[in-house]
Give the backbone structure.
Amino acid sequence: MLLRCFFAWLVGGAVACALPQADPAEMYAHAMATRYAPYADWQPVVDVDALAVQAAESAYWQTPAAIAAAREATALPLAGLHLALDPGHVGGKWAEAEWRQFRIAANDFYVREGELVLEVAQRVRAHLVELGAEVTLLREANVRVNPKGPVDYLQLAAQQVPAPKEASLAELINYGVALRARAVRLSIVVGDLAARARLVNETIQPDALISLHINAARWPVVVAADEPAKKDTIEPATCHESSSMGTLRLVASNHVHALIFGCMSQRELQSVRQQAQLAVKLSNGSGTAEWRLGAALAEAFALGTGLPASTYGGTNAILLDAQSPYLFARNLMLLRSVECPTVLLEPYVANSVAVYSRIQAALANRATGAALAADDILLEYTDAVVAGVLACYAAE
Ligand SMILES: [Zn+2]
């Protein structure tokens, strides 16, 4: 029982009990096998004995327990908490290039994930500040966080895009288009995620980071009227594979989940950089705190939305606890690169029948300046985040 408690503490479980003198190497091994690389042969690349004797660097963030313990009895419920909010993606003029823009009909409002979650972040900040927290947004507008633009990545893009096979005009044009697309993605997706992680680790240094997204399902293949319709392909993992082109058909599925770091694949474990990031996350204790925050947020979303939990097929994510079906571990770049406890939210399926109409209604209200509806989807999202943060950081 004592060993189980210690393992639960290490990997972030909710079991609370006194910590016995367990072997840290054993703890790390258990965490690797159950959370950080449950489907990979990690022993040849992760030396848990070396990690166990290595002194952990002092962390820039504080645990929920430490923040609560330092709070005066008369203070506001979130006093002492410094939270960073990441409105996912960029939106604005980059929304199409980052594949986070779509609409079904020409008269509809564009659904741009980066813009929707920026509004949520601003609303969450207003609530949490009233409750005593300090809140920093990673971006305040629909602009890149990365100071480097696509032109800065042309050389790198040229190393990654195959050269034209022949010197024909058509091939050269294709090459130019591919080069430009690659440079844009390196700037606004990969480069932006790296810039966000740097901003959190080196400048903001909050107690935790919450990354706000809205999920989407893979677009179903539109079939001819005389063909039987295929079942929706649910792919919560991709968080938006959207398009503004062609005929799009909304899906029926709608669900919620939250993600924390874990579930590295065999190939990812071979990367020296990822090994180093894993070592930091494994030894700095953020795994426990982010599990707790992730579980609190997941529960708040389950209650606030009434939606079912997302499911993952395959081995790119793992459900950590059957009692908490909305929380998965996954090896996403932001989750791996940010040293403090980090949770990524993926509520709703933006291209589902139900959510698409709710987003259209929300955008219409904002366009006309009408009062927001009681069931406004962005208000519902905001309330769930606030409830989750309160559940994790207000009470001890
Ligand atoms: Zn997203």
